[in-house]
Write a structure and sequence with these properties.
Layout: H1 18-25, H2 33-45, H3 49-69, E1 74-78, H4 88-95, E2 100-105, H5 108-118, E3 124-128, H6 134-143, E4 154-158, H7 170-179, E5 186-192, H8 199-207, H9 220-225, E6 231-232, E7 238-239, E8 260-266
Parallel strand pairs: 1-2, 1-4, 2-3, 4-5
Antiparallel strand pairs: 5-8, 6-8, 7-8
Helix pairs in contact: 1-2, 3-4
This protein binds S-adenosylmethionine.
The site of S-adenosylmethionine has 23 residues, from helix 1, helix 3 and strand 2.
Protein name: SAM-dependent methyltransferase
Keywords: Methyltransferase, Transferase
Pfam families: Methyltransf_19
Length: 272
């Protein structure tokens, strides 16, 4: 079902949405007054936030390139968001036109815009699903015919696991996703943290409670736990700009100001 302006009928315009607030911070056009008001309020408390979000996208792009170099040609990108420049399928298919991508997001606006962008691309789809139901996501990915779970794949969870509260057992969700992957697969996670953060960042986090998706900040140790027994690539779980920067000059004196850790791990265990 769509509204006359082409938006999915189920979108709730009475509350801001995390995906649309994020889109506004990235300079996108897929957001509404209610999202912009919350974004401006958060921005006035944490002037770094737009930079943080860009830093998150850059981390994701660097990680995807490392996976492509390792031969990964299929990606499951959960919490993929509203498409902006340099989406995963653009980075991946520029390097390998055969690369296949399944995007997943809980936000109907993000999914609708992703579908619009992907029209005509038979190697990428957008699925409307909830990370808290990982088995459904795996079923959808299989049903898409784009992901072969007997071969290595890249599971991307950039800036999304912090939307899963402890009560929804994020570690179990991650374990379910890892268990579906073949040896040689990679897991990419970036996640907001309270470690090394000023008070205004912690206050802004409380504002996220106004969206349908409140953020849970976690420690480096908790975030590292999401990789299970997979092998962390160097330099481990670090403040995002420190993860294999394109150039040393991309890292300033305060990489912690972006408020999130990022890491990449590989499933090394041999099958059987
Ligand atoms: C901060 S954005 C990150 C977008 C993209 N991964 C990136 O790194 O640029 C987080 C996205 O996660 C989505 N999200 C939040 N909770 C989710 C859930 N339970 N299941 C799936 N997606 C979710 C939001 O709708 C939003 O689009």
């Amino acid at each position: 079902m769509q509204t006359p302006d082409g938006l999915p009928a189920e979108i709730d315009l009475s509350r801001p949405s995390a995906a649309r607030v994020y889109d506004y911070f990235l300079g996108g056009a897929h957001n509404f007054e209610i999202d912009r008001r919350l974004a401006e309020q958060i921005a006035s408390m944490t002037p770094n936030l737009a930079d943080t979000m860009r830093s998150g996208r850059e981390f994701l792009r660097r990680a995807v390139r490392v996976l492509l170099d390792a031969g990964i040609d299929q990606f499951l990108d959960i919490g993929s968001g509203i498409p902006t420049v340099g989406n995963v399928h653009e980075v991946a298919q520029a390097a390998d036109p055969q690369a296949r991508i399944v995007y997943v997001d809980i936000d109907p606006v993000a999914v609708a815009h992703s579908r619009e962008l992907l029209a005509g691309n038979d190697r990428a789809v957008a699925v409307h699903a909830d990370l808290r139901e990982p088995k459904l996501i795996l079923d959808e990915a299989r049903a898409s015919g784009l992901i072969d779970f007997d071969r290595p794949l890249g599971i991307l969870l950039a800036g999304v696991v912090h939307f899963v509260p402890d009560a929804d057992r994020p570690a179990d969700i991650l374990a379910t996703l890892r268990a579906a992957a073949a040896p040689g697969s990679f897991l990419v996670v970036s996640h907001s943290t309270f470690e090394d953060q000023p008070q205004e960042m912690l206050d802004a986090q409380r504002l996220s409670a106004r969206t349908d998706t409140e953020i849970t900040l976690r420690s480096r140790a908790e975030i590292t736990g999401f990789f299970g027994d997979w092998t962390l690539l160097e330099p481990g779980v670090v403040h995002m700009p420190l993860w294999r920067p394109d150039s040393p000059s991309d890292v300033d004196e305060h990489p912690e100001r972006f408020g999130a850790f990022g890491g990449v791990a590989r499933y090394d265990r041999t099958a059987g």
